Amino acid sequence: MAMKPANNKPEIPQYVLENFRPLHRLEDDASSFGYNNIDADKKIPGFEIYSSAGLKPALGPLKSAFYRISITISGSVDVQLGLEHFQHRPGTLSFTFPGQVFSKSNIREDTFGYYILFNADFLEEIITPDRITTEFPFFDYAGVPFIQLEPMEIAAVADFACKINEELQQHKPGCEKAIRLYLYLLLLDVKRSYLAQQLHITATDTRNTYLVPRFKKLVSQHFLTKRRVADYAALLGVTPNHLNRTIKESTGQTASSAISDMLVQEAKAVLRYTDTSIAEISYQLDFSDPAGFNRFFRERTGQTPLAFRKNA
């Protein structure tokens, strides 16, 4: 792929919390949990909570400027976070953070759960925004954004969600502070399970358990500025040939193909959820010209960017 020098490019669009609701809720949704159909005077800036009742059957890929916690009580959901694929089942939690490309699909009819969205500064009375990823490693590229809880553990998380909903609906004095405290306690409770399960990647793990997931996380983090396999090999302290061979053996695709897949996700997000022109998208993604971007997208997806946008 021929790329342009990245000079003074506009930022890739990200959804903010204030205009995100139409993307994930059905238009005729009449459910009443959390922020859904809540009175305007009960809303709290920088925070929203919903149940899966009224959730659209698919979402993304897209990027958002806020944190997200998805909690599955029953059923199943397919989730993709960057290059990592997961299936939610009863007791599953997943976490996304600002700037991450994510999508949901194959939401079964019997699926039920909760999800919480919040801005980085929502918890600043308790924890400063710059400490969130340190305090809660599942909100960081280097962490594991997916955890499976035991029945008692998921019940405790669901109880926090219900307490938050009660505070929202009753709107008693001090409810905003109570919601912040419940959210922090929810995260702390999940962190204890996360640490107990030792859900972290270390350099002492075997080749496939360390190198492959770490490569995927690095690509998800740096794909807009690093496009060569050699860039990631250097970050991982291995040769490009070794990295390519390991990725190919583990995933069936080359390392360069994985980088391209991440770029396609980004392109799809911008095409589906913005009116940005094809020419501007090619510029944002550092292609030398729109024709090069069109050719790349068609080779990877089987359709042109314009056709994808029309059918999305």
Automatic annotation (TrEMBL):
Keyword Signal assigned: no
PANTHER family: ARAC-FAMILY TRANSCRIPTIONAL REGULATOR (PTHR43280), TRANSCRIPTIONAL REGULATORY PROTEIN (PTHR43280:SF32)
Protein's name according to its UniProt entry: AraC family transcriptional regulator
Pfam families with a match to the protein in the record: AraC_binding, HTH_18
Top-rank taxon: Bacteria
Annotated organism of origin: Chitinophaga niastensis
Record InterPro entries: AraC-bd (IPR003313), Homeodomain-like_sf (IPR009057), HTH-like (IPR037923), HTH_AraC (IPR018060)
Keywords: DNA-binding, Transcription, Transcription regulation
The keyword RNA-binding belongs to this UniProt entry's keyword annotation: no
Domain HTH araC/xylS-type: 213-311
UniProt GO molecular function: DNA-binding transcription factor activity; sequence-specific DNA binding
Lineage, highest ranks first: Bacteria, Pseudomonadati, Bacteroidota, Chitinophagia, Chitinophagales
